[in-house]
Design goal:
The chain is of the alpha/beta class and about 475 residues long. The protein has two domains: about 60 residues, no CATH class; about 400 residues, L-arginine/glycine Amidinotransferase, Chain A, CATH 3.75.10.10. The chain contains 14 helices and 22 strands. The protein has a four-stranded mixed sheet. Strands 5-4-22 form a three-stranded mixed sheet. The longest helix has 25 residues.
């Protein structure tokens, strides 16, 4: 309560059972403030609505109120700060990645270097929390609010996610943890926040819609956490859309789709979508032109163990002759088509908003490598044969060419993509040439950063290894106009 002329600091004091106001104070005017001490977590428990009633001797007043919803930030908002995990002193590969990343930021309107967070050794800054915010009408109706960092419900991320509370929370920055007790059979990776993105606004969805990946129809891969879905739905403004990411080894939506601002376009944004068919077509074109003997990953640096084993150094011809490889990409293309159909139906996406970039996936993930190693140590016989068939049947996908869709959206029409290391023909990387052209057609310029060692081989890319704080308190934050 704000009592003009009161003795409390700045005139504000807590209201309690003993609080009394004189007639003179009421005539001068008293301002009542109601502070929300938590966010809406589950509409079944509380939908965020409350009321305040003031009773007097001759009159009473009743006021209905609503807790401000937590909205997730949009990639269409300008980047203010780029976050990443702190590096180990002897990790020369990651230090080199950070130097290249920081060198790309000024061109994208970010003047400060990336900020290192103590994530306790967890590389994936994107996965530990999703930046959101709450806002209320401020002076002249302008949004006034605070950031709310939504930490991952993934049990494996909880230690790293504490950085949201210990390093980032403070004045006008809150952190919220959604409690979830994992089931022994679930895929907790679905609860990493790289699996939660937000489609920008479209007709009927003025604040966009959250997209979150999950198990689709895959047996034995349950998720994401129902408590997180309940939290997102309870906000009532960005109704979450479920996508099928069960075809991916990691299972995150940022592995195949990304959203970026395109001012002046129909919706003001477009979606960058991984296109495995285009990736295979590039390889076949290389082969057709007589360069099938080139390494698929051209221009690689000298690789030391274990990276020489983790990066597949076969030729274009060998990859195209590998039915497991081609089958994995054909399956990936089909699943991406299915997810795009969902986004068309529920989020206003049309073909005009899609930037297709060539991509290649592989089934030779870390899981594949571990199973292959196990088989090599087995004696010949039915058990080994069964394991070998299991290995050959693997189709869950992870990026073979470092994934462009898994990049960093900056300001001023700039995008940071992982260096693809595609086949080199006539001195040019055919993938980087195609990717650059795809972005150029929509007015974007691409900066390539080498994330091959330490990030890509860990089955992530630039987006996975970074997070952003964006300027969220623009006109689009006025959720109260769209109730």
């Amino acid at each position: 309560m704000h009592r003009p002329g009161g003795s409390a600091p700045l005139g504000w004091e807590a209201v309690g059972p003993q609080t009394r106001l004189t007639a003179q104070e009421l005539r001068r005017g008293v301002e009542l403030g109601v502070e929300g001490l938590d966010v809406i977590r589950d509409a079944a428990d509380w939908d965020g609505r409350t009321s305040v009633t003031a009773d007097g001797a001759s009159a009473s007043a009743h006021l209905g109120m609503r807790q401000a919803p937590v909205l997730t930030q949009l990639n269409t908002a300008p980047v203010q700060e780029v976050l990443r995990a702190a590096t180990d002193e002897d990790d020369t590969y990651t230090e080199a990645f950070v130097r290249e990343l920081d060198a790309a930021l000024p061109d994208g309107g970010v003047t400060s270097p990336s900020r290192a967070l103590d994530t306790k050794g967890d590389t994936w800054a994107q996965d530990i929390f999703e930046p959101g915010y709450v806002a209320i009408p401020g002076p002249d109706g302008r949004p006034h609010g605070m950031r709310v960092l939504i930490t991952s419900a993934n049990d494996d991320r909880r230690v790293a996610a504490r950085t949201a509370f210990t390093e980032l929370a403070g004045h006008d920055v809150a952190a919220v943890h959604i409690t979830h007790v994992p089931d022994v059979n679930e895929n907790s990776s679905y609860d990493s926040m790289g699996n939660l993105e937000t489609v920008p606004p479209s007709p009927g969805n003025p604040h966009g819609r959250v997209v979150i990946g999950g198990d689709g129809l895959a047996p034995g891969k349950t998720g994401p956490a129902p408590e997180m879905l309940a939290f997102l739905r309870a906000q009532g403004m960005q109704d979450p859309i479920s996508l099928d990411t069960s075809w991916l080894t990691i299972g995150h939506v940022d592995e195949f789709v990304q959203f970026l601002p395109v001012p002046g376009s129909r919706l003001g944004w477009r979606a960058v979508v991984a296109d495995p068919r285009a990736g295979l077509a590039l390889l076949r074109d290389v082969q057709k032109k007589g360069h099938g003997g080139e390494l698929l990953h051209g221009g690689l640096p000298k690789l030391e163990w274990p990276y020489d084993l983790r990066i597949d150094q076969r030729t274009v011809d060998a990859f195209l002759a590998d039915t497991q490889f081609t089958g994995t990409n054909e399956r990936a293309a089909e699943r991406i088509d299915t997810n795009l159909a969902v986004l068309r139906a529920k989020a206003g996406l049309t073909d005009a908003e899609i930037i297709r970039v060539p991509a290649l996936f592989t089934a030779r993930s870390l899981d594949y490598g571990m199973l292959d190693t196990e088989i090599r140590g087995m004696e010949d016989g039915p058990a080994k044969d069964a394991k070998q068939k299991q290995l050959e049947a693997m189709r869950e996908a992870v990026a073979e060419i470092p994934g462009t869709a898994n990049g960093l959206v900056l300001n001023d029409g700039r995008y940071v993509a992982p260096k693809p290391y595609g086949p080199v023909v006539d001195g040019k990387d055919v993938f980087s040439e195609a990717i650059t052209a795809a972005f150029r057609r929509t007015g974007y310029r691409v900066s390539y950063v080498d994330d091959l060692i330490g990030v890509h081989v860990g089955e992530g890319e630039i987006h996975c290894a970074t997070n952003t704080l964006r300027g969220v308190f623009g006109p689009g934050a006025r959720w109260w106009r769209d109730r």
